[in-house]
Amino acid sequence: MTIAELVADAVSRLTPAERRVADVVVADPQGVAFGTVAELATRSRTSGPTVVRFATKLGLQGFADLQAVAQTEIVDALRPATARIRERPPSDIVAQVLATDLDNVRATLEAVDGDAFRGAVSLLADRGRRVFVLAGEIARGAGIALGTQLDLVRAGVVVLGGSPARVARQIAELEPGDVVIVIEHRRYERWLLDVLARARGAGAEVVALTDRSLSPIATDARYVFVVAATGVGPFDSHTATMALVHALTAGVAARLRRSAAARLDAIEHSWSAGNELVDA
Amino acid sequence: MTIAELVADAVSRLTPAERRVADVVVADPQGVAFGTVAELATRSRTSGPTVVRFATKLGLQGFADLQAVAQTEIVDALRPATARIRERPPSDIVAQVLATDLDNVRATLEAVDGDAFRGAVSLLADRGRRVFVLAGEIARGAGIALGTQLDLVRAGVVVLGGSPARVARQIAELEPGDVVIVIEHRRYERWLLDVLARARGAGAEVVALTDRSLSPIATDARYVFVVAATGVGPFDSHTATMALVHALTAGVAARLRRSAAARLDAIEHSWSAGNELVDA
DNA sequence: TTGCCGCTGGATCGTCCGTTACAGCTTCTA
DNA sequence: TAGAAGCTGTAACGGACGATCCAGCGGCAA
User: Fold this and answer.
1) Interface touch A188/B144, C-beta < 8 Å
2) The whole model's pTM is what?
3) DSSP result, B203-224
């Protein structure tokens, strides 16, 4: 039962003063959810008792009940399409993924702070700094996508991975000012945290893509981007991570326009010389 | 300033009990907006004073301030998403990626044919068939994501890659009925087409994720999924590919529910035995 | 004009809230 | 091992809240 419906049912039994309360309530249910009796009384130019009587006329116990209804209404409205879809029998997985990932992408990119984005792009586009991509097992796909694309527009990109020994060797080359971009979700892999700590100790600038702002990954990171990763199955979704990678690489490419074009041309030339691509 | 941002800024200065409060607050900002100090204290297994101290550590006057921030956040969130998108300047790359990738995901998943999806899931969930993931340089990130997640729910998953010799050796093991899932966009890599032809010759069932229905990848494939890959920068977007991977793995996990759970438990057990994950 | 009835808001009550002071406890340090 | 510093919850306080009581007011019929 929404507030509007409750009011509509009771409106014929309301006194003039109560009707003024009803007007205010219907026009601004948020005022009921967050406000007090006194506030509502003032806004409707009535009094506390009138507001309480209005609530009881709707069939509720008192103002507290009315407030609870208003709050429930807001929570329902806030619940993303995801939650509503999830309540249905999971017969159509594709539809669920569609709703979930649209929410994920929207939430993730809307949460991106403009300054942080520009800052991260600047770091990644600075050819004086090398870039180390550090991703856990489950985020490795996104990490490799990022590494691959960055590598196409600038030199000095290293995707950390393989054996611990190999990672140690790779990280040993890190110099102060180099960038570590780390992608990892909760249940953080220990080796990854170790490598990250070592990199920080060596003076690396850290850019973090993670699923919670409170993650240990985000601690002391220069820039943090929180990724929405709600998954339909047993796993997190990495769709939003990929969208963020898309944004970052597009940003870097835009920043490096001239030199990136030259680099792409060179790569292109090398490919066609080897006849390694088919255009069909 | 959102609550998540405030918390992120202060998290390093928080005590353990305060951090428990932070977890609850970040996980459920609505609880702050509508709830009370006592409620938050109970839910975070702390006390009233700890909750208040937490609020002051965020730079606020007290809990009342924190609640006001939470309420503002809810009011903002209630405004339609389109209004928020339009607040960004059109030059903003993040906004462009948001619009583009939302379209990509929607177009891709809406174009998925139900029968093809069920058929592909059946193939991938058939533990009698091995699964070979074949992805080009550009799509390797998505391929690895698919391979990693499939590997968590079933055995016999191989991500083809590395040197041509290694791929040749891997593909030599392919038996009729095995599944090759290929992910590649236009300007197809020659070696990939070669491998694909060889696999088909060996009796593989082919599932293709590609950017055009007329692609050589799609020819003679058992099931084809066309991915929308419009990119903002110089590169294709792989966001929609990731969404499709999400759907496929969720489908396979649902189909293999029992055995997948057992396999996940075993993997989980192995992880925790090695103390390789950090939960914080 | 008088008496009645229902509408309305001021005044008051009890409760619960957020806040603060303080003491017990743990954990480092010398 | 003794001491100090910091973390944490209990207890108490002041204030604000919703609910209730009841007097005043206006409209209406006789």
Assistant:
1) no
2) 0.77
3) T-EEEEEES-TTSTTTTT-SEE
